[in-house]
Write a structure and sequence with these properties.
heterodimer, A: 305 residues, alpha+beta, three-stranded antiparallel β-sheet, elongated, B: alpha+beta, 7 helices, 36% helix
Chain lengths: 305, 287
């Protein structure tokens, strides 16, 4: 039997580019295949080393460094895009970034009187961090989306760590709810009418998605869902959470144009309760960009024609 | 909570009034949670800034609101509620009543619903952290009182609070800067202590239109106080404006609360209530 490999979260995401004023001209940053590249600084690692040794810090290099540094900044999942949002990002035309290099950020600090070194250091870190975040969020929307997805993927990787969950679970849970809620509400309308009350929380490590609905006469339909944190980057981030009228629980393999997925189907579990069962399917993207779900039988997803 | 607020603000689009209401409500909730000690003050300020950052990023508020600060992670240690918020809720409701009283229910029937919508999220949040014993009930009482006063309200209604209703029906006129009390009395009544600071009523002054209550809470960092009075004739008196101090920049100087309406001739005693954060002190002052 052909072995199906789960594609990385970024597989199938279109590349994104941003123009940056650097060294007196317009340089390009390009995100592709999960990595940020500086097209006009082929050896930017060496330039970063030079900058660290006291050489001139260049805007492109500084942005790449900020990108790497904030690829695990969990608060970015709070700031990032929600379903249905079109425009996102600080408009550089009205919101001039306060710095384009670390040196500029530090020079923008106003210090009243002498301060103990540790206070000065922590104030400096705060200013630099603020300037980095501001510069990153002034990039074009598609670049911001990819940065936030990078953070989401990092969160999913670290979800096994209990300390990480304790520290960031609340924020990640809220971020998950913010993204999954509209789709789950629509999913709820398939089993009941009227008000759909949805609760979403992150699934425990190693646990798959579980979704259940309870319908009592005269009460709102209550949908309770536990979704893996990886759903954010692997399903929602790919834009495949609701293709062709289905609700995708997970991406399990395949290629970007022909993904193996698990879709959820309601099944009655009691007189007033329903639960979602997972069914394998293929998500095929046609040449015109349209998507269709091809149902497959359990255990045959990899071999379906 | 932040997710809900963000959704509501986005739904408001560029309608500034909706966005402002949503931000104000969020700030009230954060401030109330800090007041009862459910979150620390720094965390409350950070989460308010975080909402502003998210709104600025979406162009919903001016980009100058964006700070890009590092936000503290959720504090994993157990953070029990240190104070009950029922006293605070009473003074918050009174504050809203004083804002509502200037609106004629016949001309502005939706004012009551707006006030309820403003208080409800705070009650919900405090109730969720276990800081209120009677939150939903008092909210329902407020709804019933507003309905009895002629405002349109929705949601569950409890019992009419006669003090609140009396205040709304009295429709006391706003006090003027030129108004002065016709009578004054040195009271020197200790109400109690808040955070180690002794709070006392220094004097009262009154006329037909106003009631001044001078309160001392001598401290270099005095607590933020609110004051209301319930007299023995059954009339509630609420502060029509901010307190004003006699000591200029001196934080230890007493402050005077100007309340409305004034006292009638038959009043012999009154219950003075001073709220500092979640604490409420109350005692009788004889005239």
């Amino acid at each position: 039997m052909k072995r199906v490999r789960t594609p990385p979260w970024w597989a199938g995401l279109a590349a994104a580019e941003a123009a940056v004023a650097c060294e007196g001209s317009e340089h390009s940053l390009r995100w592709e295949d999960g990595r940020l590249r500086l097209l006009d600084h082929p050896d930017h690692d060496a330039e970063q080393v030079l900058a660290a040794l006291g050489g001139a810090s260049l805007p492109c290099v500084w942005l790449a460094k900020a990108w790497a540094r904030h690829s695990t900044s969990v608060e970015l999942v709070t700031l990032g895009r929600r379903p249905g949002e079109v425009d996102l990002g600080l408009d550089p035309a009205v919101h001039r970034p306060r710095a384009t290099t670390e040196g500029e950020a530090v020079r923008s600090m106003t210090v009243a009187g002498p301060l103990p070194p540790h206070v000065l250091r922590s104030a400096r870190d705060l200013v630099v961090r603020g300037a980095e975040i501001q510069a990153l969020l002034a990039l074009p929307g598609p670049m911001i989306d990819r940065l936030v997805l990078t953070v989401m993927a990092a969160c999913a990787e670290r979800w096994d760590d209990e300390d990480f969950r304790t520290e960031h679970g609340l924020r990640i849970g809220a971020a998950l709810a913010g993204r999954a809620l509209p789709a789950l509400r629509r999913l709820g309308t398939r089993v009941g009418d009227g008000v759909i009350d949805v609760g979403v929380s992150p699934a425990r490590p190693g646990h798959g998605p579980t979704i259940a609905a309870r319908i009592e006469p005269g009460e709102p339909v209550v949908v309770s869902a536990e979704l893996p944190v990886a759903w954010l980057s692997e399903v929602w981030g790919r834009g495949v959470s609701e293709p062709d009228g289905a609700f995708v629980l997970a991406v399990t393999g395949g290629e970007p144009a022909d993904l193996r997925v698990e879709v959820g189907e309601w099944t009655r579990s009691g007189p007033m309760s329903w639960e979602i069962v997972s069914e394998p399917a293929r998500l095929v993207t046609e040449a015109d960009g349209s998507r269709r779900i091809v149902r497959t039988q359990a255990g045959t997803a990899g071999a379906a024609s | 909570m932040l997710e809900e607020t963000l959704t509501a603000a986005r739904a408001g689009g560029d309608r500034a009034a909706v966005v402002n209401d949503v931000r104000r409500s969020f700030r009230s909730v954060a401030s109330a949670l800090a007041t009862v000690g459910a979150i620390d003050g720094g965390r409350a300020a950070a989460i308010v800034q975080e909402l502003d950052d998210a709104l600025a990023l979406r162009g919903i508020v001016a980009s100058s609101a964006f700070a890009g600060r590092a936000f503290p992670a959720f504090d994993p240690s157990h953070h029990p509620v240190r104070r009950q918020g029922d006293g605070w809720l009473e003074s918050e409701i009174e504050h809203h009543l004083d804002l509502i009283v200037d609106f004629d229910p016949a001309a502005h029937p939706d004012t009551g619903a707006k006030a309820l919508a403003s208080i409800a999220p705070v009650v919900r949040a405090l109730q969720a952290v276990g800081a209120l014993r009677r939150g939903e009930r008092r909210l329902a009482d407020l709804a019933a009182t507003l309905a009895a006063a002629g405002f349109d309200v929705e949601g569950p209604q409890g019992e009419v609070d006669r003090g609140w209703l009396g205040y709304l029906r009295a429709r006391p006129r706003p006090t003027l800067a030129t108004d002065t009390p016709a009578k004054t009395l040195a009271a020197a009544k200790l109400l109690g202590t808040v955070g180690g600071v002794a709070v006392s009523v220094v004097s009262v002054g009154w006329s037909d239109h106003l009631l001044d209550v001078e309160v001392a809470a001598p401290s270099t960092q005095p607590p933020r106080l609110r004051c209301s009075v319930f007299d023995d004739a059954g009339q509630l008196h609420l502060a029509a404006g901010p307190s004003f101090g006699d000591g200029g920049q001196d934080p230890t100087a007493p402050v005077t609360f100007r309340l409305r309406p004034g006292l009638t001739a038959e009043v012999r005693s009154m219950s003075v209530r001073v709220t500092a954060g979640a604490e409420r002190l109350e005692d009788q002052v004889w005239l």
